[in-house]
Amino acid sequence: MFREMRRGRQALPKEMCEAVLSRGSHGVLALAGDEGYPYAVPISYVYEGGKLYFHCARSGHKLDAIARCPKASFCVVDQDQVVPQEYTTYFRSVIAFGRIRVIGDDGERRAAVERLALKYHPGDTRENRNRYIDKEWAPLCMLEMTVEHLSGKQATELLQTGEK
Question: What is the pTM of this model?
Fold first, then answer.
């Protein structure tokens, strides 16, 4: 179903792909947009247990695209060091493929937004986090993407150095 990487030697093992997803701060979510045009949007996220969680408004392009087709890909660039003298970059990136659903249950939605809040502000107090979430609760929509396939790749130069 999913293509094999053409340059398999540069492929990241699953554990490294998951590490990239866990430490990334943002990525690009790609969906089938209006009139067959691809729709790719930068977005913050949290990765946990084979699932990606995103927040969004309760209406808009993302939700319309997901309603039409829940299949998506999500790309995170972990490293991109430009090396001018070699006319290249030393890169590491991961693409997750899967299906997205809108989280309808309030308990699930609350747990998902708390995961997101903890990722971006781990030192915050529970009281302050709850106050902020409660303030934004009404317009908040949470999405869950179940990862069906992970693909990661890095520059051969990073392979040679063993950099992680």
Answer: 0.91
